[in-house]
Amino acid sequence: QITTLINHKDKPKRSDKTLQAIQRVGQAVNLAVGRFVTVGEAIANENHELKEEMSVACIEARRAGETIAQLTDVASLDHPESDSHITIFTDKTGVVKAARLLLSSVTKVLVLADRIVIKQIITSRNKVLATMEQLEKVSSFQEFVQIFSQFGNEMVEFAHLTGDRQNDLKDEKKKARMAASRAVLEKCTMMLLTASKTCLRHPDCESARINKDGVFHRMRLALEQVIEIVTDSRPNGESEMPPISIYSGIKEFKNKVEGLRENLYFLSKENLSTMLEVILEHTEDFTDSAYTSHEHREHILELSKQAKMELEQLVSVWMQAQNQKTKDLMEDLEVAILKTCQCMNELKREVHSAATSLAADLLKYHTDHMVLKALKITGVEGNLEAVAEYTCKLSEQKEQLVEMCRLLRHVSGTEPLEITCIHAEDTFQVTGPQIISAAETLALHPSSKIAKENLEVFCEAWESQLSDMSVLLREINDVFEGRRGEKRVYLSLPRPGKHNANLKALKPVKLDTEEQAKIAKLGLELHLLTSDVDSETEKWEDQENEIVQHGQGMSSMAYSMYLFTRGEGLLKTTQDLFHQAEIFATEGTKLAAALQAFSDQVHNDDKPLLLLEAEKLMAMCKQLQITAKASVQGKSATFTKVDACILKTRNVMTLLCQLLPLCCKLLRKNKAGNGCLKPAPPWRQDRIRTGTNGHTAERRTETFGIKSLEHHVTNMTFLESK
Fold first, then answer.
1. What does the alpha-carbon distance between residue 437 and residue 435 come to, in Å, rounded to a whole number?
2. Number of Cβ atoms within 10 Å of the Cβ of 351
3. How far, in Å, CA of 483 to CA of 470, rounded?
4. Which residue segments constitute the domains of the chain, with CATH numbers given?
5. pLDDT in tens, 599-624
């Protein structure tokens, strides 16, 4: 509105419509400033140390708003000129000055308000730390229960403050670090409860004390990291050294090499050589690892050697081109650039394959949790010798998983995923010894129910982290294959100018804690269905098949809707959810059309079933679209609509779980030569001729990407429910 006023062009003739519009804009600015300042003044009254500064800024903002309203009050133009009333037409510089004062004072109010938020988080952290110190020193159950109740309330307050701050952070790296710290605090709160109770029950048990001390230490580190992120500072003024991955190193190296096309003199050959040396040093993490296969190790060493040779050739041509810029030399330079970049791409592909294949094998091998089960059984039996044997096996497992996380970090592809890998590594590193101390305590006190419960809690944390690793591995593969990137995940959110009608009709709101609790079961069912669909799509040999790609897109969107039920993810408001449901239904309709086209190639025995399922899918998607587009008002009606959208999405996903194996079976029949499909399928060819690439781009724009790092974090709702 201010920009509109300042950019207004003076004209000798001004219509009544123009005059009224200018006056309305001026009044609107003044009213908006008034509302803003009212909030600022209320904040000032609650925070005496900043009251004076805040009050001055609010007074300046209010004065500037009133000045703008006066200068745009054009009613006096109907009066005689002798009124000498100053307006935007007689003194445009006055509006410019008032606008500058307004913007600077509003910025000052925002900065002061932000300082207050930071202070609230620090104060909340200090309260949590003080109560933790009391919890460490308690000697009776009664006192512990009383203090832990206070601690729980303080942690809930801290969770709310840091959760809001996490959502407000613009830096994805900081957001990921905050999410990791909050995840630690959430899990450790339950661990602190059982570990402390175990220590109180068995005060002379050394392993119980070690177990408890480990939890307190980890919580303090997490609390400290939150404050570092919030205040943007490091202890003792240290500067944070970001971990360098092979992916980021290769990306930067290639950018420099390709930059030689534009400028032959912007960097030195020593600079380029040093960059390659750093990358190759990091590949030693793979070649030196006991868990890297012989084949991968040999390929990485060969590609490292080739990269050095390609760079030598590039430098040679580059130096010649600096002295003599002939056409032949520039062509040779282009070839050298292409060969160097190609070699780096192959190296990147090889380390990715080495890391992800190791991760897939380890996660599959440890999915039965046999060591944890054995520790629980032998602990209850009081068999110290067997517990010692299985703790050794758990230590071996921990080393394998830590190594897996280190290698995955190199190929994660984005900074938030790198931080997730580091967080996972820390979790395995810390949780392993804690499980061992909990198991030893149980073995020493086999009849202790609280020692048994304590071991269960730590084992659950381990299992939960393994489950998170499966999701993380899928995300890393998605980024590598270009299916999901850092920017694409935002594309299906409502954007100004694209969905204005919806944005005006519905006020975006968030679900509160009670509503999230009500819808949690439905969300969990949706989560399980996305896993089932992903498992089915992975069975297809042709991952480029249109049916598979539609299924993957729908699964990704359903996952983001599940995250919404937990108060996580990039769907922040109910309006975001409804828009996502519309896109999901559209994707389902496209899948139904693809199934109908596919049915034309199926012989009579199988065709009716496939057509019936396709029609059923089409009808369900239309119903979902109607529900998502329906206009509602009021909190209760909005929640009912949210519930209906997720319920209908779940029903579509259930049908999708049946459709995918059916289609896969028909395709396999055809490959086996059973004549299930007619030859030369025109439906596929027609689609290629009519622009498959355009369709894919459109679908990728609409598909809401799978979770970023923040999706690994919950909001401590279990404490609030207690």
1. 6
2. 27
3. 17
4. 1-75+90-114 (1.20.120.230), 246-357 (1.20.120.330), 513-670 (1.20.120.230)
5. 877 766 777 888 888 889 999 999 99
Cβ contact 671:524 at 8 Å: no
Bridge-partner residues for 677, per DSSP?
602
Q: How many CB atoms lie within 10 A of CB 395?
A: 15
pTM above 0.85, yes or no: no
Token representation of residue 423? 């967080």
- pLDDT tens digit string along 491-503? 222 232 333 333 3
Distance from C-alpha of 538 to C-alpha of 548, rounded to nearest angstrom: 9
The two most distant CA atoms of the chain are separated, in Å, by: 104
Q: 3-class secondary structure for 197-259?
A: HHHHHCCCCHHHHHHHHHHHHHHHHHHHHHHHHHHCCCHHHCCCCCCCCHHHHHHHHHHHHHH
Whether 129 contacts 56, CB under 8 Å: no
pLDDT less than 70: residues of the chain: 1-2, 4-15, 74-92, 235-243, 483-514, 516-517, 603-604, 670-722
Q: How far apart are CA 311 and CA 341, in angstroms?
A: 10
Q: How far apart are CA 483 and CA 581, in angstroms?
A: 20
- Residue 135's contacts (CB-CB under 8 Å, 6 or more residues apart) are 144, 147, 148, 151, 192, 196
Q: What is the predicted pLDDT for the residue at 718?
A: 32
- Residue 706: how many other CB atoms lie within 10 Å: 24
E-assigned strands of 294-377?
Answer: none
Q: Token match 């202790």: residue?
A: 448
pLDDT of residue 585: 93
Residue 180 is which amino acid?
A: A
- 514, two tokens: 């009670």
Q: Which tokens go with 682?
A: 């025109």
Instruction: Give start and end residues of each alpha helix (H) in 541-634.
Output: 546-565, 574-599, 607-629
The whole-angstrom separation of Cα 670 and Cα 432 is 49
Half-sphere exposure for 629 (CA within 13 Å, toward CB) = 13
